[in-house]
Amino acid sequence: MIDADNEKSRLVDGLLRDKRGFWQPERGTAPPSPLFAWPPRPTEAFKWLFGFPGYLFPWNVIYMVIAMLTWNYLQPPLSQCVDFQASWIFAIYVRNQVMLVIIVSAWHLRLWSFKSQGFKFKYTSDWMATGKRKFLWNNQLYDNVFWSCVSGGTIWTAYEVLMLWAYANKIIPYIDWRQKPVYFLVMLCSIQMWRLFHFYWVHRLLHWRLLYKAGHYLHHKNINIGPWSGLAMHPIEHILYFSCILIHWVVPSHPIHMLMNAHHAAFTPAQGHVGFEKLTISGNYSVPAASYFHQLHHRYFECNYGENDLPFDMWFGTYHDGSTEAHTQMREKRRSKHNILTEAD
């Protein structure tokens, strides 16, 4: 057990927790992606890309399937999207809200409402906060649902409507998957990498003091995070966050790519903030669930701005793997930063 914060740990519900109730995986965070290792490790990179669990399986393939099903069965034809009309815009808005509620609630109900795993693989010993004035209605869950749906669902839909209108009017470059099947597939499989690239730089921007005070502070009210915390953001942050789909204005794509991009941005925060390292399926069988890498960001704020799949944090010196060494380095950086600011004053 790596204990970065406290000298004393105790066994709670079968997990070794520190005195504040925090638990972390024995190995700390997941290792950085071998795709960017130097010297190259092609065998490990191949296994990471196509293995189980890995880059594609199971979660990215699930999001791809959702995007394709949405396009084929839940999407107004592009011919209806040539003009901005309330009928098709409202249909997309309702569809997105329903999908968001179903997917996020699936995580929340099983792990947080029904507590089907108890505290097994749970990072903290707390549940959703109530009676806390920092949250709307003094309730963390109500607060998170409000910001996720009212702000997040609305801004996500606005971007999507704009994109569909642009596809319908042939303003942005379009590809037919039947004419370029290889390009279509490679593009579909690359969307998570683009999302991680975009997320890192937008997230660093949001931690700039002015933007943090203007909007990002709202997301960081959630230290003990749950599925609904993932998309609980200020509208300013949602505008920047969902701007990832604007890449399709310059990169040739099919609307399925855009939907995969938007869905990935809308649905993966629930999983990344679920608060449990693993989702138990049956008996001792489990699959990866939350991102402990991002859990540490909510705990310490000044580290792990991205994800290990694209190791920007390691390259730019903001990497924290949960170890005592990483924690010591982070504290030294904070102390140096404080001293610099004090001298400047």
Written description of the protein model:
α3 runs antiparallel to α4. This protein has a domain at 58-290. The model is unreliable at 1-7 (pLDDT under 50). It has helices spanning 42-50, 59-73, 86-113, 140-168, 181-206, 209-219, 235-241, 255-272, 292-300, 312-315, 324-344, and strands spanning 9-12, 15-18, 278-282, 285-288. The strands form two sheets. Strands 1-2 form a two-stranded antiparallel ribbon. A two-stranded antiparallel sheet has the order 3-4. It is globular, with a radius of gyration of 21 Å. It is mostly helical.
Write a brief structural summary.
With 345 residues, the protein is mainly alpha-helical. The protein has a domain at 58-290. The chain is built from 11 helices and 4 strands; from the N terminus they run E-E-H-H-H-H-H-H-H-H-E-E-H-H-H.
Low-confidence stretches: 1-7
Question: How many individual helices?
Answer: 11
Instruction: Kindly report the average pLDDT value.
Output: 92
What's the SSE pattern? EEHHHHHHHHEEHHH
Number of strands: 4
Strand order of the largest sheet: 1-2
From the N-terminal CA to the C-terminal CA, the straight-line distance is: 41 Å
The biggest beta sheet reads:
2 strands, antiparallel
Radius of gyration: 21 Å
Strand proportion, as a percent range, falls in under 5%
Query: What structural category do the secondary elements indicate?
Result: mainly alpha
Shape: globular
Helix share of residues? 40-55%
